[in-house]
Amino acid sequence: MDRFYEGATSVFVRAYDAFFDPAPPQIAGDVAFYECLARATGGPVLELACGTDRIASPLAERGLDVTGVDASDGMLAIAERKSAALEGAARRRLTLVALDMSELHRRFGCIFVAFRSFQLLLTVCNAERWRPYSVI
Predict the structure, then answer these.
(1) How many CA atoms, within 13 angstroms, populate the side-chain half-sphere of residue 86?
(2) Model pLDDT for residues 44-94, shown as the tens digit of each residue
(3) DSSP-assigned letter for residue 134
(4) Which of 2, 11, 37, 111 has the most CB atoms lying inside 10 A of its own CB?
(5) Edge to edge, what strands does the sheet with 110-113 contain?
């Protein structure tokens, strides 16, 4: 992953951000879909592989407490830059974390991986670490 998404100036990071720029939305209705799921669970919300902040900030703007996690410092640098433009209350509801998604140990009401993020997982997880958890 580092090879492709190592910094905010990486051509891959910039291309990803340009392609998924929110105007016009590339995947119509997905933010509303995740908002509906999050409200049904009562939150808080965790977006794994949040990338350059296409979904986390809009959810925070809609009043949800959101944590966005990504292993790419480059993606998160752009996400931080975008989220800095949020108004105060929305900015306080959003937390962006540089972390491998397998290392987060906190409970959330709604956890999702949006769009095609699983396609970017380039290594195999140690399945033994996940035995105590159940997958629904």
Answers:
(1) 24
(2) 999 998 988 889 999 999 999 999 998 888 889 889 998 999 999 999 999
(3) -
(4) 111
(5) 94-98, 66-70, 45-48, 110-113
Which token pair is 39?
């409200």
Cis amide leading into 22 (omega within 30): no
C-alpha–C-alpha distance, residues 43 and 114, integer Å: 16
- Sequence length of the chain is 136
| Closest by Cα among 86, 26, 74 to 50 | 74
102-133 burial by CB neighbour count: b if 16+ within 10 A, else e? Answer: eeeeeebbbbbbbeebeebeeeeeeeeeeeee
Tokens of 94: 């959003």
Q: What is the pTM of this model?
A: 0.72
